[in-house]
Please model this.
Amino acid sequence: MQADAKAAIREYWERETCGIRYGDAASRKAWHDEIAAARYELEPFIPAFADFPSASGIDVLEIGVGAGTDFANWCCYARHAYGVDLTVRAVEITTERLQLAGVPENRYALRTADAEKLPFADASFDLVYSWGVLHVTPDTPAAIAEAFRVLRPGGRLKMMVYHARSWTGALLAIRFGWLRGKFRMTQKEAIAQYLESPGMKAYSTREAQELLERAGFEQIAVRREFAPGDLLSMRLSAKYRSPIYAVVRALYPSWLIRRVGRRWGLYLMMSARKPQH
Model:
C-alpha cells in the first residue's frame, strides 16, 4: 500500500517539478533564472530562514531539491552540498542549473533517493534542510528519524511542513467540500485530497513539534508564514485556469488576509537541533 502511494507521489512530481511553471524563457539559463526569481519573490522569507551563508565550512544535505534554486545557494557556501530527490527529473533539472551556473562538480553531489531511507551513514551532515517535502512522503515520522540519524551531534534541521489550520486549507475545504455539500470535510482532508500530490499531510503547530520531539530533536522553534496559496499570488496550475477562478482571484481580499496576520499561514517553518550527546 505504501509502495503504491509513493509511486503515485513520484509520478505526480515527475510531471511537474516544483517551481517549473514559472519558467517561460527559451534560453535554459534564463528559464532557470525565472524560476529562481519567482521563488524568492513569492516566498521572500526563504533566504533568511535558510541562512545560506551560515553553511560556510559545513556539510549540508537538502532533502527534495526540486528545481534546485535553494540547492544552488547551498553550493555557494557549504563545504560540500548533497542533494536528494525522489524524482529523476528534479535531479536532472538541478544538475543542469548548476552546470549552467558554472558550479564546480566537486562542490556537490546529487542523486535520487527516498527520504525514508537515506543512503548516507550516521552522523554525515551538519545541517539537513527540507522545504515542503517531508509532509509529502507516506511515512513522515520515518523521514524525520532519518534526518536525525544522518545529522552529527549538535547538527541542525531546518524544514517546512504544511499547517492544517490555514487559509489554503480553508479555501480547499470550501471549494471541494462545502460547495459540494460535504460540510464535514476538514482542512486536513481537503489538503490531502486536493493540494498537490495525493496524500499530502498537514499538521497543527503542536503536532509538528511532537514529530520532532519524538525523533529526539531539541531547541525546536516554529514560525508560521503565508504561502502563495494563502494569498492567491501564485501562478495557477492547469486545473484552475478557468474564468470562474480568474474572477475569484480578482475579488480575493489578499490585503485583508495580510492584515489579519500569519497565524493561519500554510507554512510551518521549523528549526531544531540534534543533542550533542
In short: The chain has a mean pLDDT of 95.
